[in-house]
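input
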Amino acid sequence: MIDIAALPIFTTVIEHGSFSRAAAHLGLSKSAVSKRVTSLEHQLGVKLLHRSTRSLSLTEAGELYYRHAVDAVKSAERAEALATSLQDVPSGILKVSAAWSFGRVYLAKIFPRFLKAYPEIELRVSLSDALVNPISQGLDVALHPGNLLDSNLIARKIVRLKSVLCASPDYLKRAGTPQSAADLLGHNCILSTHSSSSGEWTLIDSSNVTKVKVSGNYQVNNGEALREAIMQGVGIGRLPIYVVGEDIFAGTLKALLPSYDLPYKDLYAVYPHRQYLPLKVRLFIDFLINELSVDQLLWDRWEVTS
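output
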């Protein structure tokens, strides 16, 4: 394998006409420069330079190699300039994934603002409730709730996601309003199969953690479908506040058991590498933190109005 790093040393020797002047230009010792060129000749199996005490000149093989070496060095310099330019101006393709409901409710509203701020970025978004791995799927950022599944990934907290128990006024009129965690046992509870704890709801008050085995006649793996069933009075459901918050504010849904908290999840921006993080990725994550930290106050507003 040819020592690619020796190419700019070799071309600098030819451009400056001596090992000593090339060494001064490169900030290396004369002996180090001479050894790198000699090593390159050994790797190639040909003599590149005629050396004398007063001058040096290219051999026939050296002439041919020098022309192509100059092109290779220039190509490498252009590639470096293109790569580092992405750190100066936010541009290029940015591939992002997020949960479907969260993307529809919040991200779809703020992504246009991001693109207006950084018009040179081409944003490609995939919305899915399936967990993804940024490395295997070629993503720049995955917005992932909960703990990391792969320790090789880097995560930065974006915002806290809280959940709420809620039902429609119509359902509560028919079935009654639960006043305690135990009252949930007598209600039709709509379950999300996307959650590992769908059949057991955890409620937390100031001093106790209560786990309630709940059941109902409808199970679904999508938050929007679950919300629709709650809206139509099928039963009580557990959903993130960002999904049903506006419905609670409008009075079309009622938040239940406000003296209890439900377990929360933090939303993370997950990405493959920390070193040399592209500017477009860093700006995107900073943008999300700024935008969603403001909305976080709105998500908690149901506690005041319920």
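quick obs: The chain has a mean pLDDT of 85.
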